[in-house]
Amino acid sequence: MRWWRGPGGPAAAASIGSVPHSPARRALTAAIIVAVGLAVSVVGVRAGAWQYGKHVARSEAIAASDANASLPPASLEEAVGTDLAVDATEEWRAVEVTGRIVGDSLTLLRNRPVDRERVYQLLVWMETDSGRALLLNAGHIPVPGPLEDLAVPAWPAGDVTVTAVLRQSEPDDGRRDDGATRIAAAQMPAPPAEPIDGYAVVTQACSADGCVDAFGSPVPLPTLSLGPHLAYAWQWWAFALIAPVGGVLLARREWVLSAERTSNDESEPAPAPPAAGPAPPAAASAAAPPAAAPSDAAPGPASVAARKRARPARPARASARRTRELSDEEIEDAL
Known about the structure:
Elements: H1 9-17, H2 23-69, H3 76-80, E1 94-109, E2 119-128, E3 132-142, E4 160-167, E5 194-207, E6 210-212, H4 229-267, H5 282-287, H6 301-310, H7 318-321, H8 328-334
Parallel strand pairs: 3-5
Antiparallel strand pairs: 1-2, 1-4, 2-3, 4-5, 5-6
Helix pairs in contact: 2-4
């Protein structure tokens, strides 16, 4: 803990250091952790519900495909009803339609490889005998090379009877480039009559010249599978269950650790103030008299006497100070 130099001294420093671990602060931290856990749980529930919805939709599509595949081909009016739209229960139904193919409406569907090969799928309008327009996915042709021409098949000139599988229209992506990127009426030329909301994949076409499987190569129908959506849904729901429990445990752990830190801060003694150092020698240097500047002039008598007095006394020699003893004859002569 650093020494607090502000107002209040060590007491103020101790009170400020204990603020982050106050009960209110600990309660706020725990509440935030629990709230985050609950938010994650809500996200997990919604994501699991979305994945489960995808699973249900695929299950219904597979059930409808299996049920409709076992039925004989029906007329277009019988299959789509009076609403002129292909719904989920009518998708994958085989129909048999007679009419004329409008060859001028040919549109190339791009970016749809077949068996990993670059191809153009052929989209064309068919004017049916019932006075409706049906969009056909008539087949596919390979994408030509730089020096090759596009090999477009010849369309029958008269009536043609088409056996096809109904599909729902794809969502329009809004692109209006050369060709199409979605199988939707909005990306096609104007239909010759009121269109059916949906399209049909040709599996056989019969005309006066004979029958073919498709115009060009046939477009294979997609293989339907449930996919991993149900497993993903269970994973998300398990995560939604674990998240709040983990949040509560983490909040409790943070509460205990914060209480321990607060207890340690309160039991820690206040640090002693720093010891004062020795006073600077400013006063002593100020009291000392300034040294006399050297001079080249000859010293006077007073200065010589002062130097003698200041000169240290030499130690007396024992041999010089020793008193010589007198003999008896010298004493008698002296008397």
